[in-house]
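Sample 1 of the test manifest.
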Amino acid sequence: MTLNKVTQILLACVLLGLLLAACDSSSPTAAPTVPVVEVIAPTPETGTPETVEITSPVEWFIPAAPLAASWNVSLAPGQTETVLMEPKEGEAQFHLLFLLTRGHVLYNRAIEVVLTTFQERGIITSAAVVLAMDPETKLADVDKCLAALEYAEANGYDLIYPIGSDATAAVHDNYRGGDLPVVALLAKDPVLLGQIEAYDVGSGTNIAYTSVSVPVDIQMTYFRQLIPDLKNIVILYDQNNTSTVKTQVEPLDVYAKENGFNLIPIAVTQVESNDATRIELQTLFPPIMNTLRHDDPNNNQSLFLLTNSSKIVDVFDEVVKLAGDIPVVSLLQEQVQEGNVSAVMSVAVSFDSNSILAAVYGIRILQAGEEPGSLPVGLITPPDVAINFMKARQINLRIPFTLFETASKVYGIDGYLVREKGQIIP
Amino acid sequence: MKRLINVVRLALVLSISLGLLIFIGLGEARRTYPQFAVEKLAAQGELVQTAMHPFLLADLPLNQYPGFNTVTQPILSSDPHIYAIYVTNVPGQVVFAQGAGVQDVGAIQAGQAPYATQPDASRYLVTENDGYYQVSFELRNRFDQVGTLHITLPKSVVQNTINSAFLPVQGGAVIVVCLYMIFLFVTSSRWMVKEEDEEENVFVKPGEKVPATPPSGWQQAGTKLITFSYAAGFLAVAALVIITLTNIYQDGMRGKIRALADSLGYRLNSALELGLSIDDFTGIEQVFDEYRASNPDLSYVVLAVDDNVIIHTDASQNGTRWEPQRGHFEENASLMQDEQTGRNLFLHLGIPKSVIYNRLLTSARNFVALFVATAFLSSLFFSLIRSMSNRPPLIPGQLRKQRGFLLSLIGPFYFLSIFVIHGLAQAFLAPYFESLAEASHVTSGTSTLFSTYYVTYTIALFATARPADKYGPKPFLVIGAVLVAVELLLLGLVSNFYMMYLVMAITGIGEGMLFNAVFSFIIRVSSARQRTRGASIIVTSLYGGWLSGTAIGSLLAADPTLGIRGVFIIGAVVAALNLLYVIFAIPSLQGEHFEETSTQQFDSVTLQPTKITRDDMRAEIDRERKLRQTKGPVQRFLLDLWMQASSSFSDLNFMTAAILVGVPVKVVVAGLIKASLPLVLKQQNYPTQDVGQIMMLYFGAVLISSSIISRLADKGSTRLILFLGGLFSGLGLLLMGLMGNFTGALATVTLLAGMIVLGLAHGLIQAPIITHISRTKTAKAMGQSAASSVYRLYERIGNIGGPLLIGALMVQTTYDAKTIIWIGAAIASFGLLFFLMAQFKKKEVAK
């Protein structure tokens, strides 16, 4: 493996870590050792709430209510970092192994989504959830990863799901060409990370890749729907965040050159505090705004694009303020939010969506007999779109009706969430 | 009393015609109206799908969709005919269900098969079983299909709508028949033969002066009276049917457009109900355009604020005052009020009335075809009724005195035989066989079936010619009719591809027998003067029966309740009636004293006697001697064939006429027209009834040109006529093939022109080639009769080889219409070559 690739993987790990941190502040280590929780599980078919007792033998994996309702959770005999999930009813048709390099509530959610997706399609599964983390460094333990893969082969498992970019990188490096099929879950863009050559081809190995990123050309399709005469994209990012530069800025720069529009960078460097970053932004914005005023006097050919650099995420209210009447679009769904301190639109992929896609890939491999190496990189299209109409009105931006129809989150003209996941919020 | 009987008989003919007309009208309605109903159902289903789409797009589990009842209830309330709206998951379990039929989902789903005329395959799937139409939509999230939405309509609803609409038509038809009877009764003195005239006409003297057509003026006027009143009655009921169809189609169209308006309105309301304004959006015009593209019948979609157009699919109308457009069915949907502005929004959708008129045009065209077909049948029955009402006593041993009457009996029989053997199934037999072949995984089997028919037909022609002379025609008429009825019954009951070889073999034997028997019957009973009438009976029955049967058969087959096999059963019933007719109405000629005649001495097309020369007699004696020396019937048969064929080999004139003109005609008729063209037309998406009408043009053209040219054949240069026949055959085929290069109306126009030209050209060749053969060296050497037989032998080779040759070509090119262009080029080249060789020969002779 080249040094460049190692760097990319490490950067990816860091970025994913930041992402996870940004998405959920709860820490997995805060969970009780053997938690006993009672929750109300939704049962839409009957309309009757059902009480489910959730127990877990480990602190790093707490199964959600739907899992606890349908699977028995226990430690594997003689193991301390392998949790087994056996179906309460019926015999498992397939055995899945989830490989984690650390515990996290988002990973728990991913496991839940994958297993329930199988269940919804009438497929009964059992699962093993294996933690391959060095307790000292809290980083991925490659030896434990290898041991988990051996365990899977020895115990008749059918499919491996490495969760997160670390686990995926470990499997990519050490288990390509292995006997068992693998589907990457919650991993960053494998093309930009050099794990696979292109989006539309399979790996040719036992690994099928999925991505939580939205490819640049798809992002651009949405931006152009929003602003048909788009000419200028001002991209905001943290200069020190190399992974953002590599996976979001540079690909867009290449695309801009190839497609004849201006990519104007605003790279913050003062990241020691949010205040320092805000001050830096206040310095960087005026000349850019002057340029835009000159180039786009009607404010209908430009947009600000927020990358998901954590520093930009922290000060995005400042960006929204400074952008004035020019639309601010984000690659993080959370930056479209209530009120008018919001991006007008986001184009992103939710982790749930990626988990469902990984489950679908798993079903295609196990049930339809497709080769994992023949599956193209699993991308989510259409991505999750969120729109804030209060902000849109404020900047006199009209939204394409088809974008509205496909939006998973809609904030109304008063700035409140009015529709989420296809349901009207009263 | 006799007057009443005749009136009833004539009224019966009109009743049958009107019955057929109403049945075809009902068939039209049954074919077309369900499409409107299904399209309406699809629009209603689309509304539910639209409502579920955002939820699914969020990748939420299907079974957690909360708004199913909310969305479906208004649809079910506004259209109580919908039996069920339900959703199944991927394993096929019902997740949601609403409507009266929720308990019957099992019955609804049982045996659902693809609907024959699915309007649009890409957005939804239409299926049907015996009881229900069902439109199904895929429910997809961003990854794959998570379920299916079904919306179901009982067929009985559609059926009842159609039946109720047609009740007044049926009443109207009864009234028309009653009026017709009254009219006939009142005017009977003008059309009925008076007693004294009957005597004069029927009991003719042995000197043979039987009139071929009604001779006196008042009789002809009477015939016209019957014909015109018949036509008036037919057209009156046809107009009633058209009006009824218009009403049904309008009803269907309005239902569809209402559902479309609701569906689109739902999409727009999904924004308004969130408190958003139409002004918050761009791209609504694109939504309208896409909606129009996916519903091509829509001519416009308009969003208006009160009366002001704000978005129109015709952008030039934006900002204008809304006014309903002329010549359109329009539906308005009132949207939710725009909360932001307090404006009242309306959606206007329009479908041009021409959509209805175009569909009616198809119906009208079908009725014209039916009118022509029934006109043939009716005129046949009218003349039969006239003959039967003047039926003389048939005294055994004295039938010779009733030649005219006897001759009038055989026409309807042969007409109906051809009607059921060839006509009824002409438009769909080849595609039907192809479907059976596909089901049995047999490739290119259809052409071999047709060849089988021609082989057995040829054998039967050879084998039964002399016995028919010897034992009289009736036994062969009966056996032939039985075989035809059995063949049709088998077609109706059996669907095994390999059994079709047996069926086609039976058909060939039956028809071969029938032809010889009919030929023998006509030759026996007709005097020299009546032979023209006899020839006319054969030609009219052949092409008229074919034409009439093709029109009626294709229209019947297009009726979804009857289907192809139903048509075969109807054919079997008609064949059985025909059998009864031949048993009871046609007397045996055994023991009757007609002139000593042998069918061998007459040409089968012109019915004129072929000259028996001394050479003929010598050759016949020699042939008989050689045959007697050969052992075994098969060897004798083969030797006979060889002796006949080999005698022509050295005659260039004979051979060029046979090989370059006669055989190609048979190849085209047997291989293309009968066996392959229906498949090509099916490939070009012509419905069965259209195929039938296209075929009608060919047979009509043959009938017209053959009847004209037969009068001229003896007078002009047969060489020139045959050359023109060959050349125009090629041109006709060329035009037909060009349909593959064009689309739409132009393709149809070239096809129709090609069919007419081909038919006219084939009519040109039919009789003149016999005349031409009779003038060849072979005819001089072996006699006209023998030469004619040899020529027929070549024709049979063309008949048998045609389906194989053309079939193989068509299979190679997957029934590409352009293949016909190459066949046309070959046929035209043969014609040209024939002419050049004849010219060359002429110069040689001159030198």
